[in-house]
Amino acid sequence: MSDERFIPFLRSEVTALCAADTAPGDRDAATEVHRLLAGVLHQRYRRVLREVEADYFLLHPPEYARRDAPPAEEARDRARARLERLLDGLADTAGYTRITQEELAASLRSHALLRVRMEIPDRTQAGAVLYRRGRVSATARVRTWWGLRTKDIAYERYSRVLVYVHTGEVTALKLFEDVPRDDIEMLLPGVRPRMRLVDKLLIVVPALVSGIALVATKLISAVGLLVLLLAFWVGLRDTPVQVNQAALVTVGAGLVALGSYVARQYRKYTRRRLQFMNTLTDNLYYRNLDNDAGVFYRLLGAAEDAEYALAMLAYRELRAAREPLTAHALAAAVEGRPELQRGREFRFAADDALATLEELGLAQADGAGRRSAVAPVQACDQLRRLWCEAAD
């Protein structure tokens, strides 16, 4: 079974799916349940947003913030710890799965679309926390044989990748989209592109060939003259070397040829490095969705939508069941719905869904640990009460 927990449906689609199975007599009340549940969850996440802003602006105050003294280091550490815990909780609620160090190491060993070897600073890799969501199979056309041929390759990509890095030098929070599974290392700050063996050979081999040709055609006369001069100066040769204008021209031409050869090879090397940097920059630029505080805003919205989807799908299934369901039976019933299949396997987080319903008073458990949903009319009354309490 897939470890993917993300449900690939918009909130409006979830609402439509749940409304389609509602009995005609309960349809108006069920519609009100959807509306009230969305409002109550929005109020809850609105409060979390204010807490995030308070802690985040303590660490990164905006330009218009005025303070007589900077906050104490202990207060900043507590705010960072709260944000890290909240980030982990929001990512889990929004259906993200944490990327293990083994997955990151495997990405360093392989490539999908980015044919560049990456080098990651040790402190960055140790302080990095990455999350993924939405595993999708994809194909792409890439160039091979130095651009002479093209071929289609199959690879896996993640719809979203969340990156959090905190070291002594840098704190980064970024969100990316459509990232190949084998190229996720490019998202880390401080990553440096390095040449693969084949890239080095493409520079070294032509340089050696052209260097040998240069020595054989233009440098051999100048090198021979310089060797004779050196031998005379150190006493290995008794006959002095005649240095005339023709000899100086030969030596000068050889030095100019050597200098132009070195400059040409250096330009080739720097151009290759720039190509790697441009490849990395283009991939990051087009895949970047948000940074820093904006990531929290996106995560809060995604977590709110995911909790709504879980709660509504669980409520619908409990109402449709003829008897109370266990968490395992609820998960199997939701995952087995054909209208929820879109070519992506996902694991329905039944425990989280039931916890939300019980917290809101929309489900109740019997002595055997099985749950049943309250009637839509009763659910509306309960949600209105929660709405009024939150507004006070």
From TrEMBL:
Cell membrane among keywords: no
Organism domain of life: Bacteria
Protein name: DUF3754 domain-containing protein
Keywords: Membrane, Transmembrane, Transmembrane helix
Keyword Metal-binding assigned: no
Source organism per UniProt: Tomitella cavernea
Residue intervals passing through the bilayer: 201-234, 246-263
